[in-house]
Amino acid sequence: MRLVQISDLHLSASGGFFNDNWETTLGWLQATKPDLVVVSGDVALGGRNVDLDLAFARSQLERIPCPWRILPGNHDIGDNLHSGSKSNPVSASRLQSWRDLFGADCWVEQLGFWVIVGVNSQILNAPELGDEGLQRAFLKSALAAVPEGTPLAIFTHKPLFLDHPSEDASRPDCIDPIGRKQFAEMFAGRNVKFVACGHKHQYRSFALGHVRYFWAPAVACVNQAPDIKSWGLRQVGFIEYTLDGHNIRHKVHGADFLMRHESYVYTREYGALDAPEASAERSGLW
Ligand SMILES: [Fe+2]
Ligand SMILES: [Fe+2]
User: Fold this and answer.
1) CA 119, CA 155: separation in Å to the nearest integer?
2) 162 burial class (0-12, 13-18, 19+ CB within 10 angstroms)?
């Protein structure tokens, strides 16, 4: 079975700077037709009008030529209440708007004899919303029907941790320790083969014990200047997983054929990432 993870498309209804990489990625999907595509969040740029960007993204995803599932990211429904950006918090109304547009924000999908699980990382450790309990109850019930030993692949928007599950720092770029504990409890005793995320706009793969961890690069762009610490490789692209029996092979595509947009250059030059009219007038040197 072939599963492709595309992440952090950051599509913009007003044109933006990254829509070209979506078109190129879509062409790749149309040519290769995977068995399943997982879109692991940040589908919207979420600039001046996140609702317009989300509606635009929804219409674009219709063009994927095979079954697909999607998870929300911080640009889509807001950031984690206790560890995320305080200027962009997740809210019940944003979560509901997203569900109205895209459907369930956590889900379980059969792929051959594998089970693929999508977890909404943005509502972990958010008792104020009430929905993390619903997510746990849904997954507990759905997984109760999955035979013991079934290989699981779990997708989420934010990484569970940066370097090790024992980290106790609460950072905006990964799930905080309380959310991580909730996540771990959902899958206790299960045959988790890998956990894959987006959000960091970096490619990384490593293994701890019998679990592999993948960070998908963004389709849209790389973030931050080269002299700022990164954990993974700053590149654009997407990941193709081949599930062959209990074995996993993965391959990163796109670094050699997508535009390696650098968001921090555009932000510095234009002040915003959804300002194509500004970019039409200014091109740096002339
Ligand atoms: Fe992103
Ligand atoms: Fe993100």
Assistant:
1) 6
2) middle
pLDDT tens, residue by residue, 22-37:
999 999 999 999 999 9
Nearby residues for ligand 1 (ion, Cβ within 5 Å) = 8, 42
Say how many Å lie between the CA of residue 41 and the centre of ligand 2.
Answer: 7
What are the residues whose beta carbons fall under 8 Å from the beta carbon of 129, sequence distance 6 or more?
Answer: 81, 90, 91, 92, 95, 123
Neighbours of 3 (CB within 10 A): 24
> What pTM was computed for the model?
0.96
| 280, pLDDT greater than 80 | no
Strands 68-71 and 211-215: unpaired
Residue 194 clears pLDDT 80, i.e. is over it: yes
Residue 281 has pLDDT above 90, yes or no: no
Nearest ligand to the CA atom of 159: 2
Q: Quick check: 275 and 255 in contact, CB under 8 A?
A: no
Give distance in angstroms: CA of 134 to centre of ligand 2: 22
Domains of the chain: 2-281 (3.60.21.10)
- pLDDT band at 285, cuts 50/70/90? low
